[in-house]
Amino acid sequence: MGETFIEEMKRMSRLSEAERQLLAEMKPVLEKHAPQIVEAFYAQLEQFDRTRDILHAQPGRIERLKGHLARWLIRLADGQYGEDYHQERYRIGHRHVEVGLEPRFVIGAMSFCRTMIAPIIEQEYANDPQKDARRLALDKIMDLDLNIMLQSYDDKRIQQFLEVTGFSKELFENMIAGAAG
Fold first, then answer.
1. Could you tell me the CATH number of the domain that includes residue 26?
2. What's the pLDDT at 161?
3. Does an H or E element contain 178, and which?
4. With a threshold of 0.70, does the pTM exceed it?
5. Is the pLDDT of residue 105 over 70?
6. How many structural domains is the chain composed of?
7. DSSP secondary structure string, 153-172?
8. Which residue segment(s) compose the domain that 11 sits in?
9. Which of 19, 31, 60, 70 is the most buried (most CB within 10 A)?
10. 3-state DSSP call for residue 26?
């Protein structure tokens, strides 16, 4: 059996064991700062009609989502990035598709989180010689998450296309391969 998606993506990003350890060491820092990041994140989403509509589509949704985002942030520093991690992140992307959140907002949200976390790393690890390595490790795991979530978008949208058109997956893949070749 070949390499799994998560194994291949970790290898592609060159996420090392040392970086996984640095991430795990950062968990208390992410736990400490998660509330302020979450509040800033949702204040940012309120600035856009599309995301505001999604946030307010159901009573209590924002509070539930705040809890999910805090757990997502903290889990970035889990240090363990295997199949369970992959499936959890994939479900997040899948859920974003289901509620109608376009990929551009997921990419923008990831960028927002990065810009919130960067000064926290600067502050918390000001005298740490591993500060830059910590930031790089966090960038790698956030890129891995983004990759997984965007793959779930592709998969879900292909599934929706196949359901609407009645095409088989094999026919669709042959059409794409033919168009590319």
1. 1.10.490.10
2. 85
3. helix 169-180
4. yes
5. yes
6. 1
7. HHHHHHHHHHHHH---HHHH
8. 5-180
9. 19
10. coil
